[in-house]
């Protein structure tokens, strides 16, 4: 196993930081405790082995590695190297000390946000500092999470992630308000990375309302268009804007952000695609757009959503309710339970349409007939509840017509009493005309007479299809 003496580590830091154009990527690697993928930089274990065992005691006021750093490094780099080494020692103990490690990492980031950035004010090229900022802020959030877990185990109130969020906000402001004239060499190019890190922090703290301040700050600043930033920043920022809109129940805006993120993501980023589809499928299901077979054949999505799709197509309201109970835990974890529950109206609509078909497609139909069919395919309810349900369907334009309350009759539109769902995307004129003609033809086609008791009528349900691989760029 390789051993890195503190003097060697200090030499690497000095070499990477010298000159007018320091090596930001090399410095980020030297000051990183854990990479985003969870792996550990090689210097972490090597440096710990190179530190004298007597210096593994963090209470030592004058460790030998501090002397080694002081003889080789400028003050700003000395402070950073010292705190980073203390983080390594704290986490390499036989019993890791995440609380101590977080405090040292907090000091490291504070050193950057205060002293380090003031030192860079006169620098002609400071974009190299962004990789360093990304690395230490990522570690700060990770160690804050571990520290809070330790506090919860000790029956104490978790507070470190909230403390970290205030410092991350300061780093975000340092990027957002950078006044460098050359945008391409400005810390403004790190704004969206820091915004995403804050989104993650606020979501974990269950303080999503604070995300609004981040979005407002970005919209009010003079930043380059989002398209000028790295694709990874665009994908992540659009994803979290979509989640934020989803939590506000602004499903139209959420759909736009999720589709934008999906269109840019690499086709091999399966995990990230799944995260997006976890939200996008329920949104589109609510408006009658179903996933393709390619998506439903995946265990993650098919196991949860295929029974819902089948229930909507067949009008099996009871089956839909049963799948809601089965998938409740998974949907609650992702925060999508309520929207999937709302999409139940698709299965109800199909069931009511079956009742209309069984009655030979009349323009006037008793509420009792709807109630009889509904109670065959779902848990029984009384006629008043069915009337209320029909009124909601009419209000949402899922059924065209009106209710004559006195005679207890639903007067249906002669043209399209059960209009098809809107298409997934706007259609060109000819395609739109063809779709409307097909819809009218389906309305005018009379079925063979069927008894009302037949609940499993096989019929074409006008649900559209979306494939997760559409326009996914590399």
Entry keywords:
474 residues, mainly alpha, 3-stranded antiparallel sheet, two-stranded parallel ribbon, disordered C terminus
Envelope shape:
elongated
- Percent helix, as a range, is 55-70%
Oligomer: single chain
User: End-to-end span in angstroms?
Assistant: 38 Å
Report the radius of gyration as a whole number of Å: 30 Å
Average pLDDT rating: 85
Number of strands: 5
Textual characterization of the structure:
- Helix content is 61%, strand content 4%.
- It has 474 residues and is mostly helical.
- It is elongated and about 95 Å long.
- 36% of the residues are buried.
Secondary structure topology:
Elements: H1 6-17, H2 24-30, H3 42-50, H4 64-72, H5 75-91, H6 98-119, H7 129-153, H8 160-176, H9 191-205, H10 211-220, H11 231-247, H12 251-264, H13 270-286, E1 289-291, H14 293-296, H15 299-314, H16 317-326, H17 328-334, H18 337-342, H19 344-358, E2 364-366, H20 367-377, H21 383-395, E3 401-404, E4 409-412, H22 429-444, E5 464-466
Parallel strand pairs: 1-5
Antiparallel strand pairs: 2-4, 3-4
Helix pairs in contact: 1-2, 1-4, 2-7, 4-5, 5-6, 6-7, 6-8, 7-8, 7-9, 8-9, 9-10, 9-11, 11-12, 12-13, 13-15, 15-16, 15-19, 19-20
Structure described in brief:
The chain contains 22 helices and five strands. It is mainly α and 474 residues long. The strands form two sheets. It has a three-stranded antiparallel beta sheet.
